[in-house]
């Protein structure tokens, strides 16, 4: 039975969780958020939230997964029943699955843009193009539902194929090849950017700070980013945790995941800003930083077409190893709950996600500003989806912290955490008081945005 599946090695969970964590959040979202929110000040707050909120919740989510040894939905059912707890806790499983489903639907569309840019780069068609032409080519991509749909389909089918082959052959097998390759590519891109770009400007932008540069919005963005980047609150880590060896240390593994994820984000930040500043471009470009500003820099640089292509391959690979962790929790549930074969469960999950992805695809063209759909919600349907996940993620994280901190029996928690008393009490304090307070704060700030 699939719920009895365990990763092949003691360290495989770490590999899989790093694969999940490192993705568009590091390469695309982290640099543009840093660029928009004052550089070093944002990074400082981000690092703090990773340490006192992200890591404790990461431990809690892994713990719940491993204690239940089931998919998030069935696992929460099992834990609440076997411990005689309130049924309401089961919402953690359902909300996680819903969030995973929604996130995969747009994650795939955005990863699809990287597929397009890989082609543009390697074919050399942007070489020497000016900023206006490159901006226009991005606008053209977004204006074309057909193109977006094709890339979205390619990407999501690729993720489905991997998960469909099972956790050993599919997920472990692909990670064992992809993760070292991705790290190597990142190193190559970093070295290139340090050689041809303005490394000094990038380092001073990222590592010197003036706390006044950071608005309250920036603080909240930093907290949201720490959830997104560590894959928290979506059942992804819980599902992978269900397969984790009982011998691996939860604390040590969580520290390692957070460390690698942060280092990768910083390496990507240094590489991207060295190229951007080296070409005299601006940091605060928002989501277009990777898809417009960076290609403008590559277009002018020696070897830019090839290195740019290599960079976008990295983006696709990192996104792929994250996407599979979004397919797994829902697919595993379909297998456990309805007895579907794995390929059938994956096909159902991926098929429905593909369908929901159309909402994002059309948000940039058929349903963009000025159309009735846009007016109906006063924002694009894609923004609505993103907004829903921005609520589900912290809410899931909050409940996970409370469940592990207060509801689960001491025996169950100690059984997973081991007996290292020092770490245990620090973790318990953070997960009981600090993380919930911090998350509640973000959450209360998000609600008023419903008004518009
Ligand atoms: N952590 C991933 C990233 O940084 C995104 C993700 C979120 C993946 C949730 C899985 C689950 O890109
Ligand atoms: Na990440």
Automatic annotation (TrEMBL):
Top-level taxon of origin: Bacteria
Compartments (UniProt record): Membrane
Topology in membrane: Multi-pass membrane protein
Residue intervals passing through the bilayer: 12-30, 42-64, 92-115, 149-171, 183-207, 227-243, 255-277, 297-324, 345-367, 387-409, 421-444
Database matches in PROSITE patterns: NA_NEUROTRAN_SYMP_1 (PS00610), NA_NEUROTRAN_SYMP_3 (PS50267)
Keywords: Membrane, Symport, Transmembrane, Transmembrane helix, Transport
A GO cellular component annotation in the UniProt record: membrane
UniProt xrefs under NCBIfam families: Na_transp (NF037979)
Family (UniProt): Belongs to the sodium:neurotransmitter symporter (SNF) (TC 2.A.22) family.
Family annotation (PANTHER family): TRANSPORTER (PTHR42948)
UniProt protein name: Transporter
